[in-house]
Amino acid sequence: MKKTNLLILVLMLSTFLAACSGGNQFDSKVEQEKATKVINSVLTSFEDEEKLAEAKTRDEANRIAWKKIKEKNAKAISKDLSEEGQKHLLYILTFNKAEDLPNGETKSNLLFNQSAKIKNISLNETDKKFTFDLQRYEIDHKLITLEKQEDVWKIVKVEDPE
Q: To 5 degrees, how large is the angle CA 83–CA 112–CA 92?
């Protein structure tokens, strides 16, 4: 009787452990859908050609626009994204519509751009990171890498393709 109870206990414990470990498996299709949803939400977070910033120089306008993009996409952008990565992301999401002023100066207007499209998606299975190749106007493109942080897919790196 004791052996039977022990056997049942062992079977129940092994079934429980198998169920628990099965829940932690990485389903690449499901995770790719989630990561793609994050990228698409960033790409459509403002209206197309919506003015994000206006300043005397493009650098000033970039800082204003980045603050708005970061606030609106706080859940999608990692705190680890480098300053260079921020510049690359800003580049793919905006365009500068400079305006000459009557006094001879120029005003920089940064407008949101929804023309960036996903060209390709690749998975680094070892690191469990997705890299999206985003293309804008069929000539410009950037590689955007997402990794799961705090159970949410976040942009961790934006770079030029090699």
A: 45
